[in-house]
Design brief:
Radius of gyration: 16 Å
Number of helices: 3
Distance between the termini: 25 Å
Helix content: 25-40%
Shape: globular
């Protein structure tokens, strides 16, 4: 999910400009990035950080908020930090949360609710 401060941008194909309106460029139908090694994966469905960076570059602007409601390995959060976006991650598995904190160098904060 992507949030913007102003009016939401339409992500529809612009026939005149040959790209998606509201994006930096026409999104490709196929991305070619190396998959993550099974030895370093935190989550079974983890995607490469570079893939998320390419998508974020196309459909968000620096400073916008990106929400990942199934953080898994935290790679969307890492990509957002690298590209100057604000990331909010949700993950249900406590062991994944600890690994994401370590990956992103985020200190543990006390829970306000339990």
């Amino acid at each position: 999910m992507f949030f913007v401060k102003d009016r939401a941008r339409s992500l529809r194909f612009d026939k005149r400009g040959g790209k998606m309106s509201g994006t930096a460029y026409m999104l490709p139908t196929v991305y070619d990035f190396q998959p993550i090694s099974p030895k370093t994966k935190i989550h079974q469905a983890e995607k490469p950080v570079e893939l998320f960076e390419a998508i974020l570059e196309a459909i968000t602007l620096p400073g916008e908020i990106v929400i990942d409601q199934f953080a898994g390995g935290g790679n969307l959060g890492k990509a957002a930090m690298r590209k100057g976006r604000i990331a909010i991650l949700f993950e249900i598995l406590k062991e994944n949360i600890q690994k994401i904190r370590e990956k992103l160098s985020i200190p543990e904060l006390p829970l306000m609710f339990s």
